[in-house]
Amino acid sequence: GLVRYLGVQNSLPLLLAALQCLNDSDFVKLVKAATSLYVRHTLIGNQNPLEIETVFYNSARELRAQKTSKVSSSKALQAAKAHLTAISPTDSLVKEKFVDLQLSRSEATWVMAQIANARQSKTKEVGMDRANVEHIFPQNAGSAWPNRKALETFIWHVGNLTILGKRLNSKAQNKSFTDKCSEHYSKSELKITKDLLQTTIWDEVAIRKRAKDLAELALQIWK
Q1: CB distance 102 to 158 below 8 Å
Q2: Burial of 120 (0-12, 13-18, 19+ CB in 10 A)
Q3: Minimal CA–CA distance to 43: which of 102, 95, 85, 91?
C-alpha cells in the first residue's frame, strides 16, 4: 500500500533498513507505523512533505545505529518509531482535514479498501484485487443528476467514494442516487456501501457529512 498505491518512494530507505535490522514481527509494526504517519501527515493532513522525508531518513539511520549497538529488535523499533511519532498530526487536525480530502485514483483504491474493511467483519474483508472504486456522484453524470454542476468538484472527494463489486459497479454507472441505492447498493455485502441506504439526497451536504463520519474510522485505522 505505502509504495504501490500511495507512491511513497521516499519510504524505501526506511523499509530496507527495517528489513535488515528488525525481526519479522517488528518489521511489520514499523511499516504500519510509517504508513499511518504518511496517511495522517501528508495524505490527509497536507503537511510539508519534506518533514516526512527527513523523518524517514532519520528513522532509517536510527535503526542502523541501533543494530550497530547490538540492541534488541524491539528496542530498535521503539527508537525508530520515536522519530515517526514526533511529527504525527493531532487527531483533531486529521479530522478537520479529512472533510476536504481529495484522492487520486490509486490513493482512492487503497484508502477506500482500508476504510471498507474497517467496517466489515474479518470474514468478509475486501481484497485489493476486488476493490472497485465507485463514484456515488458519477464521473460522467447526465440528466439523472440535475445538481451535477454543483457536484463536479466532488468526484474524487473521499465522501463521494465507496467500494462496490465489479458487476454491480459496471451496472450502477451514471444512474441517479435513488436508483443506485435501490438497484445496486442494497445488494452489496459491504457495510460501507449499505450505509448509503440511510441517505435520501446526494448533495454537497451529504458528501461532507459522510466524510465527517468516515473520519472517525480513519482515526481508528491510522492511529
Answers
A1: yes
A2: middle
A3: 102
Q: Give dist(CA 150, CA 166) in Å, integer.
A: 28
135 membership: H or E segment, kind and range:
strand 133-135
Is residue 80 scored above 70 in pLDDT? yes
Report the amino acid identity of residue 13. P
- Which residues, at least 6 apart from 173, have a Cβ–Cβ distance to it below 8 Å? 138
Backbone angles phi, psi at 156, to 5 degrees: -105, 20
2-55 residue pLDDT tens: 999 999 999 999 999 999 999 999 999 999 999 999 999 999 999 999 999 999
Cell 485514483 belongs to 105
Handedness of CA 107, 110, 113, 115 (dihedral sign): negative
d(CA 181, CA 204) in angstroms, rounded, equals 17
Distance (Å, rounded) from C-alpha 117 to C-alpha 188? 14
pLDDT in tens, 100-121: 999 999 999 999 999 999 998 6
The separation between CA 87 and the C-alpha centre of its own chain, rounded to angstroms, equals 19
Q: 136 near 121, Cβ under 8 Å? A: no
